[in-house]
Amino acid sequence: MNDPGGPAGLRRLPAVDALRGFALLGILVVNSAQIMSPYEAEGVRDPGAAPVDHVATWLVTALASSKFYLLFSFLFGYSFTLQAASAERDGGNVTARFLRRSLALVLLGLVHAVLLYTGDILMTYGLLGLVLLCARRIRPATAVKAAAWIYGVFGVVLTGLGALATAVDEEDPVPRQAIAQAVAAYRGSAGTVVRENLDRLPLALLGVLLMAPGVLAAFFLGLAAGRRRLLAPGGTDRSRLVRVTAVGLAVGVPGAVFFASAAQGPLDERWQLLGIGVGMLTAPALSAAYACVLLLLLDSPWGDRIQRLFAPAGRLALTNYLGQSLIMMVVATAYGLSLYGRVGAAGVLVLAGAVYALQLALSTAWTRRFRHGPAEWLLRVITLAGRPGRAGTPRAPEPAT
User: Is 389 domain-assigned?
Assistant: First the structure.
């Protein structure tokens, strides 16, 4: 998630770090719901949810689901251009570095999926990142066209299948046996947690395939934006950000409302697949609006405060991402409190907010003393095939991310 290397004189881009730190909130909210609830993990409605929990689930579905992984993927593509430029400036081998980095992400993602959360994204990044490596010299306009075709075709096909599904007037039964099995496993012992994760791994890999078009399209958009240095100081103007925000909200909000209504009600279950299709088609618009609003705030009188709030967490994005899974799994499973299925969606949302606030505070404290987070340091070691600078050295110019 963070840059694996670069020349000592190339500073980080605050906007990239701040956007990544902000995106961690959405990732945490979505992942926490799935880690804590067997119904969310199975993708079905909880028939016994209290009204406040139903509202919380609806809001998370509308505002966060399918939005923030696209933003993270965009930033991954953008960061790749900086990493490639860094490697070329200091005489490094771009291909060798990125292959080592991709392998590290795949292995780290596999461990993450088996021991913690099966909805891992690192394996996807490690594998699909190889496409970025092959396409790194394409023109920005070509990258944008490729992203539009990849995501557009995927969204249209998914929406078409959803439209056909609305003609089937049947409700999917709640998979009670699978839910009961998951509850028993995650509340059992550390061994049953790992076995359940292993059993879910094939389905998780299928989920990776379903996410792949969106991730790859966002990679290409990030690649184009990175080649044009749109997130560098002065890279874009306020009027463009305002226009993108307006269009993104106009397209994204109705799509998000329909998506949540089909997934969580009041529409019945036969609309769910169509809702997913419409939600996927319109999610990039809302993701773009989120990003542009934050960029506008960074360019406002409150910009320094917002940067200080989010950027440290973004610098430690990989450590924080893994830390989120660790904390929530300790709360949910037999690793710790065994609260799986016992906390309503509203309570999970409050818990996620508390975890995020803690991560913001810890990230700020950590980056005042250390240059890299633990996971970032490990990734740099593997990427550079050698030990980077000592973590506890005084603050110095940072490589771009």
Answer: no
